[in-house]
Write a structure and sequence with these properties.
The chain is α/β, with parallel strands linked by helices and 504 residues long. 46% of the residues lie in helices and 8% in strands. The longest helix has 33 residues.
């Protein structure tokens, strides 16, 4: 009898776990889209404080009801069955054998459900592809990587300020058809006008607008690493000890470090907790950035200690704080690198601020339009400042949006989604008028060159300086091959970039 009860408990547990895994396999792509398993691993290893927790309630609502109901009914049936078995023991061997057969059939069925759940989850989350990548190392870095630390940089006599605006989930997809977007009516007409009047490296080919986002740079901190240091964020299962306040990609050498070494003051402004995703670690260790985040806003009395909207405080406040920080930075005699990150356009459906107007009938479209307006107004404010003449502004989406429902029709049409990119008030002029195919990593050396900085190498990290006529790696290899190589394990990446071996 004791053995039967143990089997009953295990049976219920297996059914619950199996059904839960099946629902998780459905929920992950529906909620986050097609994300690599490396992204899941990364977020399991880094601080989660400051994140928006609304997805947890969605997880509970979607994934738990069916497993709980079915396993609950099964548990009741098992209790009734055990009671009947105990009362039927005196009724003869036939019933005893029949009950044993039922137990075996039930156990096998539960094992099948459990096995199906595991298999479904493995394929949905991409664990199968992850292990393939680990077991088939790439030689991409040995062939193409240029260590930025080994390159000499020459700055102009009057060093230019850099303002770098990471725009959450900002894509060229939102533009109208005429400008290479996916919509009859643009969701970002203000940003489109900025792009038309400034440098985008499309050279009139609107179908090639924006930049492609590789798998290993498809979330915020990975995008920030890629755009500022020219490498992906590819953390192995055992790599958690290398993501901390003491060590975060010690082998990378970023634009923050290059600028700090040449007398710049670096600052990062964002409306969420900078510790989320390890962003604070990366920017403090790679350029000694002054971090101004949600916690700073409370400390400075900008917002009440109990105030919280969306991820911390909304972008309408962020843009005002940016003006204050820029004014203070510009008042010193030190060149500055001011980096900021917006958040209102984060999935799911974005955050509607007090100035959002219902123009399109759906919330996400309205939020995207509102962000386009606010970013452009900030750029216009900067252009009115006395220090603008000696300042370059880079506008870049961090990664593609992860809102799969909103993009369903766009994806099914075969449209190739890309992120928004424009350089305002560049100090350099491209040597080629070709329309360039670019990725996240090309923004690193190109940003440096836009400040009038010269360096002999056409490539830094895995990125190519777009002001030169050197082919980018995606132009040379094609995006699919390049992306595939990036997802594969690399002994070079682990040794020299992730672990920082060979550094003093």
């Amino acid at each position: 009898m004791k053995r039967r009860r143990i089997i009953s408990v295990l049976t219920v547990l297996l059914v619950f776990l199996g059904l839960l895994l099946v629902k998780v396999a459905e929920w992950v792509p529906l909620t986050f889209g097609d994300i690599p398993f490396e992204q899941v691993l990364f977020h399991m290893m880094v601080p989660m404080q400051g994140t928006d927790t609304s997805f947890l309630s969605d997880f509970i609502d979607y994934c738990l009801p069916i497993p709980c109901i079915v396993s609950g009914i099964l548990l009741i049936c098992c209790i009734i069955k055990d009671w009947k078995i105990s009362s039927d023991i005196k009724c003869g061997e036939f019933k005893h054998v029949r009950n044993n057969v039922l137990i075996i059939i039930t156990t096998v069925a539960c094992l099948f459900i459990y096995g199906f759940g595991i298999t479904d989850c493995i394929y949905a989350v991409g664990i199968d592809q992850y292990w393939y990548n680990v077991s088939h190392p790439s030689k991409l870095y040995e062939e193409y990587y240029v260590n930025p630390e080994n390159v000499n940089y020459t700055f102009p006599e009057q060093k230019r300020n850099l303002i770098y605006i990471f725009m959450e989930s900002m894509e060229t997809t939102y533009e109208d058809l005429e400008h290479g977007g996916a919509f009859e009516e643009s969701r970002i007409p203000e940003l489109t006008e900025l792009a038309d009047n400034n440098l985008t490296f499309t050279n009139g080919n609107n179908e090639n607008n924006g930049f492609l986002v590789p798998s290993m740079s498809g979330w915020t901190v990975a995008a920030m690493v890629g755009q500022t240091s020219g490498v992906p964020l590819n953390i192995p299962v055992e790599g958690n000890e290398y993501i901390s306040d003491k060590s975060f990609l010690p082998g990378t050498y970023s634009i923050g470090q290059i600028l700090e070494k040449n007398g710049y003051k670096n600052e990062l402004l964002l409306g969420s907790d900078a510790a989320f995703g390890g962003r604070k670690y990366y920017f403090e260790q790679h350029g000694n950035y002054n971090i101004v985040d949600y916690n700073t806003a409370i400390e400075r009395g900008w917002i009440d200690k109990d105030y919280r909207e969306w991820w911390g405080f909304e972008d309408i406040k962020l843009f005002e704080y940016a003006k204050n920080e820029l004014t203070e930075l510009a008042s010193s005699n030190q060149p500055f690198n001011f980096t900021m990150l917006t958040a209102d356009t984060h999935f799911i459906a974005g955050y509607e601020c007090s100035e959002c107007i219902d123009l399109y009938g759906d919330r996400y479209s309205n939020v995207i339009r509102c962000s386009s307006k606010h970013v452009t107004e900030l750029v216009q404010w900067i252009q009115e400042q006395p220090w603008y003449e000696n300042t370059t502004i880079v506008l870049a989406g961090d990664h593609k949006s992860m809102d799969p429902d909103w993009f369903k029709d766009v994806e099914e049409s075969g449209y190739n989604r890309k992120c928004y990119y424009a350089i305002v008030n560049s100090a350099a002029t491209p040597t080629t008028q070709n329309s360039r195919k670019i990725t996240t990593y090309d923004l690193f050396p190109t940003t440096l060159a836009s400040l009038g900085v010269t360096f002999k190498s056409d490539r830094l990290g895995l990125g190519t300086n777009l002001y030169t006529d050197e082919e980018t790696l995606v132009e040379k290899l094609g995006f699919k091959k390049f992306d595939k190589e990036l997802t594969r394990h690399s002994n070079y990446y682990d040794k020299y970039i992730l672990y920082g071996k060979g550094k003093d």
